[in-house]
Design brief:
Six copies of one chain form a homohexamer. The first copy, chain A, is mainly alpha-helical and 139 residues long. Chain A has two domains: 50 residues, AhpD-like; 62 residues, Up-down Bundle (AhpD-like). Chain A contains six helices and no strands. In chain A, helix 4 packs antiparallel against helix 5. The longest helix of chain A is centred in the C-terminal third of the chain and has 24 residues. Chain A is elongated. The mean pLDDT of chain A is 95. Chains D and F meet through helix 3 of D and helix 5 and helix 6 of F.
Chain lengths: 139, 139, 139, 139, 139, 139
């Protein structure tokens, strides 16, 4: 059940085909998951979304690929995004996440969920020492 | 401004003093941030919260200390917990987070925020291949 | 699967029948969707909820009916309310939302999700110029 | 700093005055907190909001007034609504919430925040036994 | 469908068996719900989570058991945690929650959801009178 | 107070200057708000964020500019993003949002917040008629 219809012939549109081909090439796999299949209802939105995700998740950057997936899962859990939790947990496992790492991720995510509630309840003033801005811009 | 009163003499309570002493010893620093100072209004809640956070964040585990802080920040941003964002961003910097790593963290957190919205809108069915359970328990 | 039981004879209660009749009359349709059918477990809650929704969504106001549905969808996506996303996306389509408009809605909702994360991370001070209150009440 | 301007002479509008008078009478106090003062920028929205809140929070119902405030605080913490957390924590104290009760509330709210994260991560199937609907409507 | 595999022989691990035995003893029931069954993929995480939940929810404290369940439900609804909503609504019913109480809970939770949105939109300054801290610590 | 330091000389970096110049040209104004000033701590993140926001919010599309701002505000309120609420409410006013439209926006946002809570509590099954996918892809 989705809010858009799955198109059986989406790749007949050359804009969709170009994105799907790039997904296959980037991932070195023929499998295209439902997110992209359904997003193809709007080729422009498909293209800009894929390019945004690819540039962040599939390009080398300061963080390694597995760490980026762990962070992605943490946000998706907190936003209660069922599909995203499933797809990025699978992606993290494909990039080396063991059960032990997954348990540790859940432990941190749960601890943050716990203390976030305490602080949003207590409304404690932020310590001056945490302020990066305190180091004022030089004249 | 907080929903509890800051106690100037909280450490007169030996339960509070024991926790504060452990915070100082664990962090090798005399500084105790406002979260713990305010939480001292209930010594039992202070103790169980500190012990929970310490066991997850200050003990060696599958994930390294900096990665755990990055995940903590990701959850705190998504929950819009202002204090937590400030305190854990400061903690991450203390554990080696550079501006380059921070920008990369924000990039992943923002990308997840973006696609979480798309998937929560599209309500795409989860691909069967993502199902860990498909590998059924053995009889 | 629900947290309340669906009553097969809910309309035997005249309070429920009155609300259902008003739903049918307002929508010019015999169809009553599950939200109202299940909410009938408490006739008073059913009545006050329907009246609240009707007064906001079914009465002429500053915003046109389609725009109100788009805003409703935006909130429901962000709150990860699966039922609400489905029912209000269907309602928006019934009020003229094309695939092109839907893609544009998703684009804005996703962009907001992305920058919300950046700002909740950066904790940037609000510009004084955004403050409506700066125009102080006249003595 | 607010997104609307505070009107110094809001009560000159008889619709605003009627609401403010009812707030004072209901609460047996001359104090009107900022929420209502600012909401007065739109008298109709002020009126319908006050009447909705009053009918739920200030009328006798299945739950006692303090329990209702505790539930209100729990939602407001989870939604990270700073003003709501402050105003309803103050209201709960006025209705008898001690520091001991407040600590217990925070303990439950934090525990829920913790396990919500675990379940939103694990995506565990809901046990059939929890399904109220399993008791099907009688033909 | 879950992000971890259900183990058919989890209780062969003595750490898992000890927790399951304690769940059965605490609840005086042989039934163990899916949360714990799936969480058993990591015996340490299972143990610390159960002990945390048990100490808050199953020990006598300032709030009675039913009130604690109502607060738990309120948080779980707001976090859109489907499993948690189902399991704690069932738990609340087992502890005496009638349909009348449930409707009242939903009424308060919905009212808070409504005003949280208004306040997060209006960004009204918090009234000084709500500030517990105004009562400064004594020198 | 921010988690990054404001750079007084950010425009000395030609990548930052190029973005700031484009912001000024696009908005036909010399004013650059704090979001972009602080985001300049990472010129690449600044550039990709501005280009993403500009392509969605400042280009003609299916939705008119004011409607897009209203949707942006709705998401920002629900995510409790204080800065975003302030900046996009100001932007909406600059694009023609009157107090009457703003009150109507808040009314819809609040109603959605209210019913989202009810549905996330009731966990009502989605009506088959809402399923866009029911219209299966043609073979």
């Amino acid at each position: 059940m989705s809010t858009v219809k799955l198109l059986s012939d989406a790749e007949k549109d050359p804009r969709v085909k170009a994105v799907f081909d790039d997904i296959r090439a980037t991932r070195k796999s023929d499998f295209i998951n439902n997110f992209w299949l359904y997003l193809a209802f709007d080729p422009a939105l498909l293209k800009e979304t894929w390019e945004g995700v690819k540039s962040v998740m599939a390009q080398p950057s300061a963080l390694d690929p597995l760490t980026k997936e762990l962070i992605y899962i943490a946000v998706s859990i907190t936003n209660s995004c069922r599909y995203c939790v499933h797809s990025h947990t699978a992606a993290a496992r494909a990039k080396g996440m063991t059960d032990e790492i997954y348990a540790d991720l859940l432990r941190v995510v749960a601890t943050a969920g716990r203390t976030n509630q305490l602080l949003n309840g207590l409304q404690v003033p932020v310590d001056a020492v945490f302020d990066m801005e305190a180091q004022k811009p030089d004249a």
